Every structure is written in C-alpha cells, then in structure tokens.
Amino acid sequence: MDHTEILTRYVTSFVDELSHSGLTDVVISPGSRSTPLALTFAEHPNIQHWVNMDERSAAYFALGMAKQTKRPVAILCTSGTAAANYYPAIVEAHYSRVPLLVLTADRPHELRDVGAPQAIDQIDMFRNYVKWFHEMALPEASSSARQYVRSKASRAYSVAVGGNAGPVHLNFPFREPLVPDFTLPSLWEDRSKAYHAHSIGNKVLDENQLHYLATRFSHYSKGLIVVGPQEDHALAKAVVALAKQWQLPILADPLSQLRAGHHDKEVVVETYDSILKSEQVRTFLKPDFVLRFGAMPVSKPYLLLMKQFSDIDQYVVEAHDGYREPTGKETTFIYSDPISFCEKVMAEAVSFEPDWLQTWKTCNEKTKAILMEETTDALTEGHTVKHLAEAVPEGSTIYVGNSMPVRDLDTFFMNTPKSLSILGNRGANGIDGITSSALGAAATGQKVTLLIGDISFYHDFNGLLVGKQYEIDMTIVLINNNGGGIFSFLPQAKQADHFEVLFGTPLHMSIQKMVELYDGKYAKPATWDEVKDVLEKSHETKGVSVIEIETNRSENVAWHRQKWQKIEQELLAYLEG
C-alpha cells in the first residue's frame, strides 16, 4: 500500500466516522496542509462543507450554527497561525457550552521546531478551553490504524456533546503528498451507528435530597425564581408550572427562552432589570432566597441586588456540573436535570407569602407601561427593540450583540406569544464574531434577525463575505451611535479630555458603503413608520439586509435615564404607599 492509499484510507475513515456519529456540517478555511481532510469532507456524501476564508469568522460561523442546531459543527484549518485565529470563538464556545470539533492540520514531527514555514507549537494550544485534546498519529497502513482513527472520531463527537457541551481539539500531522485518491474501493462504510455508541442520561435527585431542599425552602417567606441565559425551550413550561404552584415571580433574562413562546407567562417578570436599578426599590423587593436556572443574567441591577444583601440564600441548578456564580455568595449547587427538578420538587408541599407575587406583577406592569411609552418622535435605541420584536416572523431567531444591544433587549423586549429563539454570545461576552455567529445560525435555513451596534459590526464586517458566498438570508438591525455607546453610561464618560479617543471611538464610516461592498441590501429609515416598513420587507428579501438606525449617544443616555427615574418614582410611590 503506497503513501497515497494509506493517507486516503486514514482520512476517509475519520471523516466517515464523524458522519456516522452525527456530524452534518464542517466549516473549512483554505490551506495546503489541511488538504487531505478538506477534500475528504467535500467528497463525503452526507456532510455539507462551508468555505470561509477567515479562520476567526469561520469559527464564529460554526459556533452560531451549532447554537442554532444544538449539534456539533466541525471547523478545519491549515497549520500555523490559522489555528490561532480560532481562539476567540473557542473561548466563547467553552464558556457558553457549545459543541465544536476543532480540527487543525500540522507539519509532521520532523518539521517542528526547526524553522519550517507555517510550523508553530499546536500541541494542546487551546489549553483549558477545550474538553479534550488529542494529537493524532501519522497515517499508517494497518487495520488497527483505521480502527484507531474511527475510535478517535467517535470519541471526539461524544465528548463534545456529553455533559456540558463544548469544543474538542484534534491535531493532524500530515506528510506530503497531501492529495487523497477517491477512486479507491470501499472508502465509506455502510453502518447505522457510530464506532462508539454512547447514551447520555440525566442527573436526578433522590427523594431524600428533594425533601431536604423542600424543607429548607419552607422556612422562607419570599423567593425569586431566576432564569438566566439558556437554550432549552422545554424548560419554560416546567419552571412556569413550579413558579405558579409556589406563587413566586420568575425573573426572566432575555436569553432565557421564557419571554417568547406559547407557554403561560402570568408569573414571568420581564422588566426586572429596570425595576431593580433603584437601591431603594431593591430594599423593598429583597427576597429571602433565589433559585436560579441557567447562567448568570445579563442584568447588572440583579447582580447588585445579590451583592447588596449578603443574607439572600442562593440555589443554583446545573444540569451536569459547573460553577457559574460570580457574586462570591454562599451558594447551594443543585446538580440535576432542570426539568426533572422542577417536576419533582413540585410534589413537596411548600408555600410562601401570598402577596409577594402580586407585588412583583404590579411593579412589572407599571414599569412596562413607562418603558413602552413613546415620548419622542426621534428614533431611539430602546424602542428599536420594541419594533423589531413586533416585526420578526413567528418561529424565527433574534441574535443579539453584546454591549448595549443585549442590554436594550433586556430592557425593552417584552413577553410575546410568538415562538422565537433568542441567541447571543454571552459566554465570554465579547463583541467579536457576532455577525459571523448570526450568519451561521441563519445558514441552517432559520429566519434570523441580528441586533448589533456599529463597533461590533465593524469588528466583524468581513464576516459578511460568507453571507454573500452562500446567499444567506438575514436581517441586520444596526444601531449606529458612532462609537461605543455603552461607555456613555459608565464613569469614564466624565473624563471629557480623553473620553472620545479612548472610549467613544467614533468610526465616521459609511455603513452603506460597507454593506454594498458585500452586495447587501441597505436601508436607513428616518421615522418609526419607515422602520416598520423596512423591517417587514427585509424578512421577505433574499440575501443580507442591513437596516441602519442612526442615534445620538448623549441623547440616548438622557432618554434612558429619564425613563429609569420615572420608574423609580412610580415604584417607590406604590411600594411605600
């Protein structure tokens, strides 16, 4: 068996096994050393390959696709700094628990550490940000080598999805020549299961553990159920049923999947971020305990509530393991399937102060009325969210950028009966790769509307190339306040001598020209009627449509603060009365 046949049977066994394990998509960035795998993925009949020339964009594109499908997506690049460009997306995938199969080609061992081109140290280069790393053996001719490579492919897939999902990294050294021969017989195996079949069960609490927790809960008068960012739509029905039985409010993060959908929302409080901005209001609404599902919420006022009162007992439910608790509070971690926990703990007799839920519901209604009130004809960042939520189609996805967009979504995205997915990159909370991630989510065929700021858009606007290449349909609502709007709300804004250069960072760039560079559709509405019109049309338009909403940073800060001040006054009048 010559080198080419050895190489061919090795790489086809690997790719074929990924397919048997469940892989359907791979994002490839062009390069020479990755040729064996790139050609094999392109040749495999059951795997779709996407080509994205920029490795940073490619990794985020795969991340968005994996978020949307809840299945692993593979990324493949050549050796050298190409792999280093994956790093930000791998960090995000680690913290947001997204399954990625990271496949990096490498020089063979004799070309490492000798000054050969495109040869860097790729051994375990992503360190603690991957669940598993393996340096693959060089291709060999033996049947045991093909068993080995199938075993590693199957293991990589199962590790990526098992427990808390996340990225895994396999590094492939290849010697030249690099081109496989697909005319060889029997390259793909006809099997119905993976090399290593795996079954993943759920953690559940036994009766004694449930009774012990219920006894602790029964000693409290007031509680809050909090659902932070998480992507399991099935949790909504279970956690709402628990909250209704216990007569407790649910503070629902915008990425909790609780604000949108057909489930009952009677106890879902969506304006809690605005409610809790006032320190005095927080004192009135202080709970005895918090039961949290999902990651820590976006809301800073909620974080301040938890830090302000050291005697609030905290319980955090995690499906597998993990330590997502940034307040430093004493915490009881409950490692159990969240839905199972809700269903089983309801069987325990627990009751709380009867007026507590109604107080929160009244605060929610008063706050919502103020937030939704349109006091100006000017386009505002907050009410852009309102009109976006009204326009997005049933069954679609809202992908939200970090900094101000996700905070405006938290404040102004109200409960809706529409069935929607709300996604964002809230693992590491970076502004990089947002456009590419949203395009990856849209590449699955799902209708996606991206809400993003101008700095984040600029940071990843080359990601629009993959949208052009594959004619991906997506609407981008771009808030352009000519700089980093979130800094205007922070103490740095008072440093007038250096603020604009160091923090405001105005771009002074034409968004229209940036969009047209990639053949996108562009609109810049001037009134709310025009906003509604272009939003509705964009969801019926092929390709990427960008709607620029131009605002003023200073006016935006004043508008937000006026609403928060009015909310505080009205809530204190109600709570003190």
From TrEMBL:
Residues 436-549 form the Thiamine pyrophosphate enzyme TPP-binding domain. It is an enzyme of class 2 (transferase). Pathway: Quinol/quinone metabolism; menaquinone biosynthesis; Quinol/quinone metabolism; 1,4-dihydroxy-2-naphthoate biosynthesis; 1,4-dihydroxy-2-naphthoate from chorismate: step 2/7. It catalyses: isochorismate + 2-oxoglutarate + H(+) = 5-enolpyruvoyl-6-hydroxy-2-succinyl-cyclohex-3-ene-1-carboxylate + CO2. Residues 12-125 form the Thiamine pyrophosphate enzyme N-terminal TPP-binding domain. Keywords: Magnesium, Manganese, Menaquinone biosynthesis, Metal-binding, Thiamine pyrophosphate, Transferase. One of its GO terms (molecular function) is thiamine pyrophosphate binding. InterPro entries: MenaQ_synth_MenD, MenD_middle, THDP-binding, Thiamin_PyroP_enz_TPP-bd_dom, TPP_enzyme_TPP-bd. Binds 1 thiamine pyrophosphate per subunit. Its EC number is 2.2.1.9. Its cofactor is thiamine diphosphate; Mg(2+); Mn(2+). GO terms for biological process: menaquinone biosynthetic process. Coiled coil: none annotated. Transmembrane segments: none annotated. Residues 188-399 form the Menaquinone biosynthesis protein MenD middle domain. Belongs to the TPP enzyme family. MenD subfamily. Homodimer. NCBIfam families: menD. Catalyzes the thiamine diphosphate-dependent decarboxylation of 2-oxoglutarate and the subsequent addition of the resulting succinic semialdehyde-thiamine pyrophosphate anion to isochorismate to yield 2-succinyl-5-enolpyruvyl-6-hydroxy-3-cyclohexene-1-carboxylate (SEPHCHC). This is 2-succinyl-5-enolpyruvyl-6-hydroxy-3-cyclohexene-1-carboxylate synthase. It comes from Radiobacillus deserti.
